[in-house]
């Protein structure tokens, strides 16, 4: 009887060992399949992100070129035309709001469907400023069309003479905060040295539009700089489209982060809600996907780590892998940690320099 029982136990051990081997093989296969899946989603998401933001770059470049070409054909207005410009204007501090010559101001509400033509020149208007205004009169419909095409928050142009065109309407009281526009962050974001568009760091729009980012393209007439064309991109609008693929795979999450781990957007509704709530409370873009050590490496005492320890650990691991990746389009790896395991892939966009981190938790 004992021999029979011991034989039975031996058979059970063999079966358990075989089952364990099969389970381990299935588990490994499942992990490899998950890794392949997140690699595909990550690189596709990065491509879509770069395409969407690339269209914004092309848009500001095209608007800038139209201004340059139109200004070449636009002479300094004569005395009679200058009188028309001065006939209807509103002045406050160093800022002047102009009506289009021969027209009334039209709707003055914030973001009303009309352009604002401004000069930050202390009420002194040089021939160059008048020439800029004349050019604004010709090109503003293109700014309206660009705004309607993308539906983002603002499209605007700043000349080197501190003349300023923006669509939709920016009331005079709100325009005071832009003085002087040539000294503002959106102007300095343009890459004058390379003559290419430049991107600002994502920020929280205090008017309630959520996380935003600004792209600015420099304008040149030959070698003479004429100013900058900018547009603000509401990240919620573009991220919902770009991140849609991640929501079709159960359990898969994709996030946009900066190289320092700043959380830009997330496909997971809870993570996205955390980005919005934490940043809104702080009135600034402060939420990061970093672990404790990673937070210490960021030179900013106001930043806040996500409450989701898995996304913090995954992004931390992804940023470490990126440093050793060279020019790889996509990096895939398996994350193991106390907070959980996950199949992870990270891809980057060339302009702006953001990362797409996609991950799927593993058993």
Tell me what you see in this structure.
This protein is of the alpha+beta class. 43% of the residues lie in helices and 24% in strands. The protein contains 9 helices and 16 strands. The strands form 3 sheets. Strands 1, 2, 3, 4, 5, 6, 7, 8 and 9 form a 9-stranded antiparallel β-sheet that branches. It has a 5-stranded antiparallel β-sheet with strand order 11-10-16-15-14, with helices on both faces. A two-stranded parallel sheet has the order 12-13. α1 runs antiparallel to α3. The longest helix is centred in the first third of the chain and has 71 residues, at 2-72. The radius of gyration is 27 Å and the shape is elongated. The two termini are 41 Å apart. Mean pLDDT is 88; it is low at 1-25.
Keywords for this entry:
363 residues, five-stranded antiparallel β-sheet, 16 strands, 43% helix, elongated, disordered N terminus
What gyration radius follows from the Cα positions, in whole Å? 27 Å
Overall average pLDDT: 88
Report the order of strands and helices. HHEEEHEEHHEEEEHEEHEHEHEEE
Distance between the termini: 41 Å
Tell me the helix content.
Answer: 40-55%
Report the uncertain regions. 1-25
Q: Main β-sheet, in a few words?
A: 9 strands, antiparallel
Number of DSSP helices? 9
Strand content: 15-25%
Question: Which secondary-structure class do the elements indicate?
Answer: alpha+beta
Q: Using DSSP, what is the number of strands?
A: 16
Label the overall shape: elongated
């Amino acid at each position: 009887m004992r021999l029979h029982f011991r034989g039975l136990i031996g058979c059970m051990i063999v079966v358990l060992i075989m089952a364990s081997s099969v389970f381990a093989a299935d588990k490994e296969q499942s992990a490899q399949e998950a890794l392949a899946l997140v690699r595909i989603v990550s690189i596709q998401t990065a491509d879509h992100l770069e395409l969407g933001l690339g269209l914004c770059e092309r848009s500001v470049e095209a608007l800038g070129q139209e201004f340059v070409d139109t200004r070449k054909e636009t002479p300094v207005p004569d005395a009679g035309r200058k009188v028309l410009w001065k006939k209807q204007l509103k002045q406050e501090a160093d800022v002047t709001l102009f009506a289009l010559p021969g027209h009334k101001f039209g709707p003055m509400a914030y973001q009303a469907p009309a352009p604002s033509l401004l000069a930050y020149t202390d009420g002194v208007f040089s021939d160059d400023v008048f020439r800029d205004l004349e050019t604004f009169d010709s090109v503003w419909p293109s700014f309206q069309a660009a705004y309607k095409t993308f539906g983002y928050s603002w499209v605007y142009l700043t000349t080197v003479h501190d003349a300023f065109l923006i669509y939709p309407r920016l009331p005079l009281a709100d325009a005071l905060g832009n003085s002087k526009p040539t000294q503002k962050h959106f102007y300095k974001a343009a890459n004058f040295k390379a003559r290419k568009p430049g991107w600002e760091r994502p920020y929280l729009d205090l008017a309630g539009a959520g996380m935003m980012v600004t792209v600015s393209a420099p304008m040149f007439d030959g070698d003479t700089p004429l100013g900058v064309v900018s547009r603000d991109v509401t990240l919620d609008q573009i991220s919902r489209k770009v991140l849609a693929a991640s929501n079709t795979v159960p359990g898969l999450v994709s996030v946009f982060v900066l190289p320092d781990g700043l959380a830009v957007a997330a496909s997971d509704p809870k993570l996205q809600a955390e980005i919005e709530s934490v940043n809104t409370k702080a009135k600034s873009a402060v939420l990061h996907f970093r672990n404790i050590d990673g937070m210490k490496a960021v030179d900013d005492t106001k930043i806040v780590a996500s409450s989701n320890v898995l996304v913090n650990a995954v992004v931390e691991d992804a940023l470490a892998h990126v440093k050793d990746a060279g020019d790889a389009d996509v990096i895939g790896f398996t994350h193991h940690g106390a907070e959980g395991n996950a199949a992870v892939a990270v891809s980057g966009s060339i302009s702006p320099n953001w990362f797409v981190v996609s991950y799927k938790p593993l058993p």
